[in-house]
Amino acid sequence: MNYIINGYKPEAMFRFFEDICSIPHGSGNEDKIACYIESFALERGLYCYRDSYNNVFIRRPATHGYEKRPAVLLQGHTDMVCEKNDDTVHDFEKDGLKLYIDGDYLRARGTTLGGDDGVAIALMLSVLDDETLISPELECLFTSGEEIGLTGADNFDYGQITARSMINLDGESEGVAWVSCAGGIHTKIRCNCDRIPLKNKTLRIRVTGLAGGHSGTDIDKNRANAIKIMSRILLNLYDFEPFNLLSITGGNKSNAIPRECEAYLSVLDPEIAIRNILLSESAIKAELSEDDASFKVHVDKARKEGGMMTYKSTANLLSLITLAPNGVLTMSPSINTLVESSANLGMISSDESEVMLAFMNRSSVESIMDYICLRFEQLAKVTRSDITHSSRYPGWTYNSNSRLQKIYSDTYRRLFGNKTPVISAVHAGLECGVIKNKIENIDIISVGPEINNIHTPDEVLNLKSFERFRLLIIEMLNQI
Fold first, then answer.
1. Were both Cys, which of 11, 419, 459, 469 would link to 449 (CB 3.0–4.6 Å)?
2. Mean pLDDT across the chain, nearest whole number?
3. Is there a catalytic annotation at residue 271?
4. C-alpha distances in angstroms, 285 versus 238, 282, 294, 295, 453?
5. Distance CA 39, CA 216 (A)
6. Catalytic residue among 117, 146, 170, 450
7. CA–CA separation, 464 vs 475, rounded Å?
8. Cβ proximity of 56 and 49 under 8 Å
9. Residues near 252 by Cβ (< 8 Å), separated by ≥ 6?
10. CA-to-CA distance for 305 and 302, rounded, in angstroms?
11. What is the pLDDT of residues 307-352, one digit of tens each?
């Protein structure tokens, strides 16, 4: 393999990261990456356990003099969010990522990079492979399905684990340690649509150029949702002159803020409709943040096979999309600037009989999560739609007596010139909540290097930060 990352230490960690990027490992497609990790352990004679969910657990014995210290668990997930630009030809089921260096940053051409959470896999492999490392017994857990509901972590056999101190390696900001996270639930609404034979003129509308982002950590950045913008454009047009919707498609993952959306509709007068749509574009563009400066609405005359929705079905669907909760819902009353609960309309798709909407809902308060679910159920009821909730997972409550928090803070200051690290909570679903719920009295902290724009094709990993991140973890292992 021709490696492109050079000049960063230790070299092995960056080689492991490039190997990982060459292996397709989107959510639900973790078999090959699990085989890679399992083979790594077997080649080195390390204890390895792999389950039917493609979770992999590896244990490395304590080095001489550290045998009496308690074991430490390192943990991260093996799946990545697979997002690409419309003009990028890439099959995430078969193709490795096309990496390139941009100064001290690593990117992938037209796709997500998978730094979330490839950095964890590479770091754990480099630590397990390091013959010079002095540490207590290490337990490394590589979990699957994190991005689609923490399914691997939820189904792992925790009888394998003896450690009661855990460092989760799924952070995204250097110098920031997460010590609490939100719980979440996936919601799908299926709206039945009556269709009639196609007539009149057909238009295609595309919303493009939005920044997107993570539906948890980026939900408070006021970034626009492409599906919501499309519904606004269509609602404005329908209020001016009713039309028949043919299809609507947008977003790829429920936990990513959608960047693009496409709709086909049948109109009586295409020229009048186009003028109305472009007026909406102008008004919306003036409202958006700088992150969404590349926002654009494309509209053209285009043919599409199949029937069209009735006026009634079109109006009902627009009501559903427009009224669906989206974005920040409540802020924490006790932690300044922390989002307490949110909803994200991440995907929409249509076929001949129905339109499906997929949401990722989050809250650090279980009773508020219950209320959010009720809101969606009521919306489904009044729009005569079917609704399902799935993969609910718990949040992770702050522990003011955490020994790991002190070790992290002290180590960070000592290594990096007395810089003060940030101890924070995150409005995202971390496996820490699931694992805390499975292992009694385990002390957990979540950290990571600088990774920006995760879950988007603009994702970028700071290579120097990745170096410093490993140094921090090695020093923490010496202190635990």
1. 469
2. 96
3. no
4. 20, 5, 9, 7, 21
5. 34
6. 146
7. 17
8. yes
9. 82, 83, 258, 346, 347
10. 10
11. 999 999 999 999 999 999 999 999 998 788 899 999 999 999 999 9
Domains of the chain plus CATH, in order, are: 11-182+395-479 (3.40.630.10), 185-393 (3.30.70.360)
The identity of residue 342, as a single letter, is S
Give the length of the chain.
480
Closest CA to 389 of 149, 29, 226: 149
Angle at 441 between CA 438 and CA 442, to 5 degrees: 70
Residue with tokens 């304590």: 62
Residue 286 token pair: 């003036």
DSSP strand pairing (296-301 vs 195-196): unpaired
Residue with tokens 């995907």: 347
**CA–CA dist 424, 240 (Å, integer):** 48
Global pTM value: 0.76
Q: Which two tokens stand for residue 124?
A: 């754990």
Rounded to whole angstroms, the Cα distance separating 20 from 122 reads 8
79 is catalytic: yes
Contact (Cβ atoms closer than 8 angstroms) between residue 316 and residue 274? no
Choose, from 18, 19, 30, 79, the residue flagged as catalytic.
Answer: 79
Tell me which amino acid residue 215 is. Answer: S
